[in-house]
């Protein structure tokens, strides 16, 4: 019934237009130059004067609305029917026999109604999140071609795209060759194969297809073609080629669109070319192609990586709610930016951003960065909390610089027990312990006259095959020299070992 109503609406519009044409058409006799006075009299009639230009515009506007409304209703009806059929296919995706039967019976009925192929194209579009099922439907369509209408280039382009999403570039190339054999090769077919190679990080093959397209006299590159080419060059940090493709695009009078500029910004971001990245963004702000949400997200990441905190926060103020909800990785990038340098109030800002990250989304590298920041800021309690979290998550630190930073923080804050606990836990958990950490612990125990615990540190050093160095002996010598007569023999022993190793006697 819906289709009947739609056809009747169209018929009504046509009748109204015909009536309007017949009622207000100028008589043929009035078109003769000798009948100008009659023409003037015709336009002077009361009926013609009542028909203002505004009324005519409104009338045609109503007719246009009816046509557009009819098209919208037809599109909605198509999507509804195809969506129902798609759901049935998804329910039977694991049953090959049922799937084949659905396509043979229900599918044929649906595709017969839309003989122009719109239903098949819509179905393949709706099945993009399920590429394995989509390729089964596409292959079924290929087998049915002899009994139904020939396949179109749009269907082949969809098939190539689906094969690319499945990471099956061989199948994509096979479908491309089949379309070529049937003389259906056009720009959309080339673009689909370029996209398949691009999505699978096969940049050289993508470029090869582009060169084939340029040599095909029947096909011409489009903005989609250049957008993919620019993306490939940018991803591979081939900035000169990326800029050359952008210039070639303009030389062919193909206007860069939003995707073009976003791909250029992404390329500069990958190459860490911050000035070029920002210049492209400013060009968008002042040009006809305005930045969108994706542009701002790229700029936010770029400013974070470059350490431009002021502009980073400026962009974040524009897209903050969206970032907080859907782009937690950008929150981490912002935290990383604050961790790079001694900025004012950076700890407060880092903790504000950390609260936006769900606890389940733990990242070892981010935890290590926080440990280093707290160590640099002498915030022992916060550092201990992050260290405990790292041990709980089985995170391992293998960077000597960070381990020294941790031990130095404990020493500056005279936290000898915390340092001792940390060194023991770090050694047991496979963290990168170093000689300087043990020297710091030796010195701390010696300064607190905890000689027995100091000597136990030497045992721990032996466990990790750290023998005594000149600095080790100097720490022991100073520790024993400040003790009573009971430690005199140990002092002489240290002096003897120092002479044996050629270190001499400390002054």
Overview of the molecule:
PPR repeats lie at residues 222-256, 257-291. GO terms for molecular function: mRNA binding. Belongs to the PPR family. P subfamily. Among the domains are: 361-466, Serine Threonine Protein Phosphatase 5, Tetratricopeptide repeat (Alpha Horseshoe), CATH 1.25.40; 468-506. The protein is built from 27 helices and no strands. The N and C termini lie far apart (106 Å). It has helices spanning 2-24, 36-43, 46-49, 53-91, 96-113, 118-126, 131-143, 153-165, 169-181, 187-199, 203-215, 223-235, 239-251, 258-270, 274-286, 293-306, 309-326, 328-339, 346-354, 364-376, 380-392, 400-412, 416-428, 435-447, 451-463, 470-481, 488-500. The chain has 507 residues and is mostly helical.
CATH architectural group of the domain at 361-466: Alpha Horseshoe
What's the count of strands? 0
- How much of the sequence is in beta strands? under 5%
Determine the N-to-C terminus distance. 106 Å
- Low-pLDDT segments, ≥5 res: 1-51
Q: Main sheet, how many strands, which sense, barrel?
A: none
Number of alpha- plus pi-helical segments: 27
Mean pLDDT reading: 86
What proportion of the residues is helical, as a percent range? Answer: over 70%
Radius of gyration: 38 Å
Structural class: mainly alpha
Gross morphology: elongated
Q: Strand-and-helix sequence, N→C? A: HHHHHHHHHHHHHHHHHHHHHHHHHHH
CATH topology of the domain at 361-466: Serine Threonine Protein Phosphatase 5, Tetratricopeptide repeat
Family: Belongs to the PPR family. P subfamily.
Keywords: Repeat
Protein name: Pentatricopeptide repeat protein
Pfam families: PPR, PPR_2
